[in-house]
Amino acid sequence: MDDLLTDFIAETRDTLEALAGEIVAWEADPADKARLDAIFRFVHTVKGSCGFLDLPRLGKLSHAAEDCLAEVRSGARTPDAALVSAVLAIIDRIGELTDALEANETLPEGEDEFLVAALAQGPAPTAENHATVSKISVMPSNAPIRTGSRSIRLPVELLDRMMAGVSDMVLARNELSRLLRAGGNSSTTEVAFERLSLCVGEMRDAITRTRMARIEALFSALPRMVRDLSAELGKTVRLEVDGGDVELDREMIEMIRDPLTHIVRNALDHGIETPEQRRQAGKPEVGRLRIGARQSANQILIEVSDDGRGIDAERVVKKAITAGLVTTEQAAAMSWSRKLDLIFEPGLSTADQVTGVSGRGVGMDVVRANIERIGGTVDIESNPGQGLRLSLRVPLTLTIIPALTVSSNGTLFAIPRSAIDELVRPRSDQVRIERLGGELVAFIRGARLPVVDLGRFMELTDEADPSLLVVLRAGGGERYALGVEAVHDHEELVVKPAAPALMASGVYAGTTLPDNSRPMLLLDVAGIAAAANVCRDQAVVEETPVEKRTARAALPTLMFRDLDGVVRGVRLSLVERIEDVATASVVDTGGVQMVPLQGRLTKLHKASALPESERLRLLRLSDGEGAVAYAIDQVIDVVEMRAELAPTTVAGPIAGVVLHEGNPVEMLDAFWLFTHGSTAPAREDSPLCLVADAEDPWAREVLAPLLGAAGYRVMFAGESTDDRVSVVVTSTGHTPEGVDAPVVRLRGTPDHNGDESIYRYDRDGLLSALRRHVAGGK
Amino acid sequence: MALYLIARIDREVVALPATEIGSVVEVDQVAAVPRVPDHVAGLFALRSRVLTVIDTRASLELGTIDRNAAMTAVIVECDGHSYALLVDEVEDVIEAGQPEPCPALLSASWRRAAKGTIRRGEDAILLVDPAVVVAGPEPLAA
């Protein structure tokens, strides 16, 4: 509030000084309409500010004067000498009170009433009144000398000149510094220079600060605006303002004022619903409008969010198609955010009816243009039915920009750091560049970005071979990668506008002179995107699947720590799930460990003895049919790992070794794991195996589980089924009546007795016979 | 009477109004600027100022000035920006009377750039408007 008060005092005093002449002229000719208007405006302004600043005394005085002057203006009263004197007395009083306010003093109260009373319609001024008035109007001359003025008002041009001067000083310092370094100077010169350098730096900071003002100056008008507008629109809105103490370039504040006002108006008019609609939508009747500012790095982020109906991107698209801004085909290929971005296109308004507040089809495009002109960005987030959030990002100042210096083919350029997402080197599987139809495309951790090669774009070379990629935000959420040869430095650059011929190219944002005193151009990140045509169809580009591409070179691999402490990997596609089971549930049968997973005993593979912990972590590996379990210690990560592996010479659970980030990783041999104990579940269409000896415990307890584990459906003689029996197994020689299926006979002894029977513990022989018969039966 | 700077562009001796000229400097190390019209030779740092270097020959469609040799430039201000106009030679500063109308027979680019002629002794010298030179050749009629 202090700042506002200071502003008020300075402004009032300025106007008073300017008004002094007017007052005298008005006194001479009370009928002079122009003078009257000037004085009326003054008291009106004071009255307005007083209400806001909670200055009741000043408010009362100015209100009285305003009323009286309004009557004069409307012709209800003719200004006579008494009235003029009374008004002048009040204006003088305002001056005194303002001085007192600044000096933090209080003036005696009582006399105010006299002044107000003097204004009142009176036939003729009494002598006494006159005396009072004249006495008071003399007072300013005796008023104490203004002490410790806390603020002065300066023309912005003067500030600009100071700023330009300091910028020049910084550059001159840089040049001097370079000369000193080249000249092999003495240490005394160096010390003196350091001191100068420090002073220049401090001065630059101080002058930069003179341009700064609290963003409160921008927010202070909002409560009133929201109140008036919502009353006009018949809505109830609660405004929350946050972060008014964030400092911003004064000029920047002025540049943001209109866009912000527009956004707030839109939120009230189109965003927030009427209390009735809100009640029906199940929302609190009072709408919420939040405006906040905060500094993030070298940018100021201003967010305006409401809990209104949001913007439906589909509706925006329909409007855009109707307005001929996009074709139906283009629209179909657009992502949600891209569609939403259409709101910023000129000539598009989603308001179905034009109201007095907004919705005339101008606006959001102007908002974006204004913000982008000062190097900022506008992002929109919409949650239909829930609300809308607009984020304005603007740089702190207009002139000093933190930038990254890059080069291609020996030419240096600066990129505003605010536009840089990241710097990557295309060398790994995660980050690489591919050529598609002569154009470069970068794959960065699965995302596909168009590449603009700086050297080729700037016509410095025909060959595009970037060694580094600078990922840039072109505004509107679009990104692209700028391929450069080298990145040099990060510095704060004093940026000046470039000549029109340079700006016309659309790819430069300004010129700057770094320490080496070689002029350099600041790149216009969005301009390059437009000139290189990279972001136009990005939404389409992003939606094409990247998995297929990456599959060739690298496979997603689950890395885990095995029970024996070794880091191993298994292709992610094989891992059906990772499960924790009770260690006690592992069944040890004849040296083979099984674990119940999803109601079925599954063969458990492990690299070493099971831990003694209560729980055991398992990978359930599946080839689509059968499944095995693999006990592990812990999962490390899922990574992209190259497909080529150095195979082991011995068959076993390890297929081979893959180098990952320089470390060998053993890969599980899925083939071996599945051939050794995969349990495929019997399915509806699995071959049905009829066991003839229903009464034989061996057939029930030994044979049937074996068949089940091998993937056959098992039924015993005497049970009925509608399905066709594929094969009959018998160990006693009996075959059930009326079953037309091949028969596999088992015998009790290993000795071969001449017939086609199979020894009942010859597992492989039995299974292969079954397979043969089932295949033959079909 | 007014002061004029006499310079040579290609083979033509021209006059520039001295009131519009900041200084005359030797230019070396012009930083090239890609993707701009041909008459923009690049950027040049004069102390802490960055000047846009204009090749006057290219601007008047008379070829280009040899940018490898030491170059002479006339510094002018135009719309708040500083430019260094590369010329082949700066000859003199003279006093001359009011400019007279141009002769009728001039090539198109000279016709655009010349504001009139001034007299140096017996010779008539074309008075060139720096702003036109800065703006460069007119884009081909569409």
Give your account of this protein's structure:
- The complex is a heterodimer of chains A (778) and B (142).
- Chain A is of the alpha+beta class and 778 residues long.
- In chain A, helix 3 packs antiparallel against helix 4 (81-103), helix 4 (81-103) runs parallel beside helix 6 (127-142) and helix 11 (250-271) packs antiparallel against helix 16 (364-373).
- The longest helix of chain A is centred in the N-terminal third of the chain and has 28 residues, at 156-183.
- Chain A is elongated, with a radius of gyration of 42 Å.
- Helices cover 11% and strands 50% of the residues of chain B.
- The longest helix of chain B is centred in the C-terminal third of the chain and has 6 residues, at 108-113.
Taking the sheet with the most strands of chain A, its summary is:
11 strands, mixed
Question: Structural class, from secondary structure content of chain A?
Answer: alpha+beta
Measured distance between first and last alpha carbons of chain A: 92 Å
Task: Give start-end ranges of low-pLDDT stretches of chain B.
Answer: none
Q: How much β-strand is present in the residues of chain A? A: 25-35%
Q: What string gives the helices and strands of chain B in order?
A: EEEEEHEEEHEEH
Q: Give the proportion of residues in helices of chain A.
A: 25-40%
Q: What would you give as the CATH superfamily of chain B? A: CheA-289, Domain 4
Shape of chain B: globular
Main beta-sheet annotation of chain B: 5 strands, mixed
Total count of domains of chain A: 6
Instruction: Tell me the Rg of chain A in angstroms.
Output: 42 Å
Mean pLDDT of chain A: 77
What is the β-strand count of chain B?
A: 10
Query: What oligomeric state do these chains adopt?
Result: heterodimer
Write the layout of secondary structure elements.
The complex is a heterodimer of chains A (778) and B (142).
Chain A: H1 2-28, H2 33-53, H3 56-74, H4 81-103, H5 111-119, H6 127-142, H7 156-183, H8 187-210, E1 212-214, H9 216-219, H10 222-233, E2 237-242, E3 247-249, H11 250-271, H12 275-280, E4 287-296, E5 299-306, H13 313-322, H14 328-332, H15 336-341, H16 364-373, E6 377-383, E7 387-395, E8 400-408, E9 411-416, E10 420-424, E11 431-436, E12 439-444, E13 447-453, H17 454-457, E14 468-475, E15 478-484, E16 486-496, H18 500-503, E17 508-512, E18 520-523, H19 525-532, H20 538-543, H21 547-553, E19 554-562, E20 567-571, E21 575-582, E22 587-589, E23 592-597, E24 600-605, E25 615-622, E26 627-642, E27 646-647, E28 654-660, E29 663-668, H22 670-675, E30 688-691, H23 697-709, E31 713-716, E32 727-730, E33 743-747, E34 758-759, H24 763-777
Parallel strand pairs in A: 2-4, 9-18, 13-15, 20-29, 24-26, 30-31, 30-32, 32-33, 33-34
Antiparallel strand pairs in A: 1-3, 4-5, 5-7, 6-7, 8-9, 8-16, 10-14, 11-12, 12-13, 14-15, 16-17, 17-18, 19-20, 19-26, 21-25, 22-23, 23-24, 25-26, 27-28, 28-29
Helix pairs in contact in A: 1-2, 1-4, 2-3, 3-4, 3-5, 4-5, 4-6, 7-8, 10-11, 11-16
Chain B: E1 2-9, E2 12-17, E3 21-27, E4 40-46, E5 49-55, H1 56-59, E6 71-78, E7 81-87, E8 89-96, H2 108-113, E9 114-120, E10 123-128, H3 130-135
Parallel strand pairs in B: 2-10, 5-7
Antiparallel strand pairs in B: 1-2, 1-8, 3-6, 4-5, 6-7, 9-10
